[in-house]
Specification:
The protein is mainly beta. It is about 15% helix and about 45% strand. Keywords: Signal.
């Protein structure tokens, strides 16, 4: 009888431990971060700030193109297991003097670690161009 009681307690303890391990809350998104990347013509900064169970993605771009007028520009952020998110510059004439431009639109992403690359497409005159930029973690902010 004593062995059965001990066995029952061990089994119940194992079940309770297993259930506790399975029901730990998943934080969802990782903490805030800043990713940066650069290509021949573009510099990109992606800022991720916590918003509930996801991260808000803010995109800033800067170009080294100063002699030509950019008539169209789109930045597409590719994330693993998510649809690519595209940001279109409505007033590309703002790209004068190489000033950084922050897109007004923001999107929610699951985790900044899933960011694969940034695709920049633009048009000057009659020619279209495309560059791919790999981004790296510039500064992961401490979790609060």
């Amino acid at each position: 009888m004593r062995k059965q009681m001990m066995l029952l307690l061990v089994v119940m303890f194992a079940l309770l431990s297993g259930l506790t391990a399975c029901t730990k809350t998943n934080k969802g998104a990782s903490g805030p971060a800043v990713l940066q990347g650069q290509s021949e013509h573009w510099k990109v900064v992606l800022e991720y700030t916590p918003q509930g169970n996801s991260l808000e993605e803010t995109v800033t771009v800067q170009t080294s193109i100063t002699e030509q007028t950019i008539s169209e520009m789109t930045a597409t952020i590719n994330h693993k297991n998510q649809k690519p998110v595209s940001y279109q510059m409505i007033e590309p004439e703002m790209f004068k003097g190489g000033q950084p431009i922050k897109f007004p639109d923001k999107s929610a992403v699951a985790d900044w670690k899933d960011t694969e690359q940034v695709e920049i497409e633009w048009k000057t005159g009659d020619r279209r161009y495309k560059e791919y930029i790999s981004v790296a973690n510039a500064a992961a902010a401490p979790a609060k």
